[in-house]
Amino acid sequence: MLDLVLPLECGGCGAPGTRWCPTCAQALAVHTDEPVVVTPRLDPGVPVFSLGRYAGSRRAAIIAMKEHGRTDLVAPLGAAVGDGVARLLAWGVVEAPLTLVPAPTRRSAARRRGGDPVTAVARAAAVPGTTVVAALRMRAFTRDSVGLSAGQRQRNIEGRVRVCADVSNEVLVLDDVVTTGATACESVRVLQTAGVRVAGVLAVAHA
C-alpha cells in the first residue's frame, strides 16, 4: 500500500521496488585503480581525486540527494567515499589521523535541503582514523554557480569562504562534484592561509 502512495524507486536508475539497485551499486563501486587524479580548469595546488564521472547513476544519485530530498542515498554515496578514502590511506597519499572537511555549501541551499548533504556523506563514510569537521562556511549572498563559466565561478566564490573551526590534523577536502575547481581552490586557499595542512581534494564525481 505504501508503494502505491509513495512509489519506491532506485535513486540511480529509477528501477521500481528498491531505493538503490544492485546495478547502480556496482556502478558506484570503487575499483582498485580508483580514485583517479583529475585536472580541473582551476588548479587548487593540491592533488584532486575523483571517484568517477558525473554521469549515469552517479549523477542521478547526487541530484536526487541534493535536490529531491533522497537522504536514503547518503549511505551508498558515503560508502563509496569511505572506500575512496581508505584507498588513499593505503596508497600513502594521505595519512591518519586525517580530517575530512566538506566543501562549503550556501546556507540558503542547506536550509532548503534540510542540511548539508556533503557533510552528511562525509559522516557516513566512517573510515577508521578519520574525523569529520565542518570547518568551512560560505558567506552570505554567494550566487548559485550553476551556469557560470570558470572565471565567473572563481569571482563568485573568491573571498566568500571562511574557516569557522580549528583543524589540527592533515585535511582532505570532500566535494560532491568538481567542475571548474573554483570551490576546491578557494577551500584549499583559506585552509592553508589558516595554517592547515591540506593533502588533497576528493570528489564523488567530476564533470
UniProtKB/TrEMBL annotation:
<dbReference type="InterPro" id="IPR051910">
    <property type="entry name" value="ComF/GntX_DNA_util-trans"/>
</dbReference>
<dbReference type="InterPro" id="IPR029057">
    <property type="entry name" value="PRTase-like"/>
</dbReference>
<dbReference type="InterPro" id="IPR000836">
    <property type="entry name" value="PRTase_dom"/>
</dbReference>
<comment type="similarity">
    <text>Belongs to the ComF/GntX family.</text>
</comment>
<protein>
    <submittedName>
        <fullName>ComF family protein</fullName>
    </submittedName>
</protein>
